[in-house]
Design a protein that fits this description.
Rossmann fold, two-stranded antiparallel ribbon, alpha/beta, five-stranded parallel beta sheet
């Protein structure tokens, strides 16, 4: 439940990530999304904040999310994939107008099977990682596609020199607050207008917010949705990746 997390003593007290003040260090944000809506839920505020700060934003989508609902007479996997890709385009346009979305076409639920290919494709997109903030689902999130995306991004960050930040998604539902990697986390505080933009982007993923069959509840509803519409986004820096940031640099992170 969101309130359980929000009552934890570390919630909102991990070091802040000040993207707007770090434009001299980062000129490009590359966001990896395993499924349509991951980007809006996990880092919609970061995408909007970076875009408004003048940072170039690119979004890389791994799968079409076609396996997010069981197949049935109401919708086919192909129709759902088409719908979710269109929703992704609308959501990203709301978050950062003009941002390109690169679709890699990995199988939903099987991203790990093509992880090597994802590393190559993502590496081509990132290129020289200097000045690049690479953002991907957390490698230990608890969903195989999220974890494959995180591992691929970590490999690209190591080879390119990009700074890697990871965002949990299903961790908030599968884990207990005491199990979270608080010592490796930073937070991005969201201004009210950024929160409104993020919420609009989440709503653009309409297929996730409605039941696609009488026996199939919406994928996003209730407490799970409420968690992602709060006043801050919490992100993970692994110890090795954290070395890329100077903890004493007040422009990037500082203990609240």
């Amino acid at each position: 439940m969101p309130e359980t997390w929000q009552q934890h003593p570390e919630w909102g007290r991990v070091p802040p990530l000040d993207v707007a003040s770090a434009t001299e260090r980062w000129h490009r944000l590359v966001v990896v999304s395993a499924h349509p809506d991951d980007e809006s839920l996990g880092v919609g505020g970061l995408i909007t904040t970076a875009h408004r700060a003048g940072i170039d934003v690119y979004v890389v989508l791994l799968t079409a999310g076609e396996a997010s609902h069981p197949p049935g007479r109401e919708v086919t996997r192909h129709a759902l994939a088409t719908e979710r890709l269109a929703e992704m385009d609308r959501a990203v346009e709301l978050l950062a107008p003009g941002t390109p979305v690169v679709f890699l076409g990995a199988p939903d639920g099987g991203a790990a099977d093509v992880e090597d290919q994802m590393v190559v494709a993502l590496g081509d997109i990132v290129g020289d990682g200097e000045g690049t903030l690479l953002v991907a689902p957390w490698r230990h999130d608890g969903h195989p596609d999220h974890e494959a995306a995180g591992r691929a991004a970590a490999e690209v960050a190591r080879s390119s020199g990009a700074c890697l930040v990871e965002y949990p998604l299903v961790m908030w539902r599968l884990s207990e607050p005491d199990d979270a990697p608080w010592e490796q986390m930073v937070r991005l505080d969201l201004a009210p207008e950024v929160r409104e933009t993020k919420l609009a982007a989440i709503r653009a993923h309409a297929s996730q917010l409605r039941a696609l069959s009488p026996d199939d509840p919406p994928a996003l509803s209730g407490p799970m949705l409420a968690h992602f519409t709060g006043s801050a986004e919490h992100l993970v820096l692994t110890p090795a990746d954290a070395d890329a940031l100077d903890p004493s640099d007040d422009a990037l992170r500082q203990r609240a």
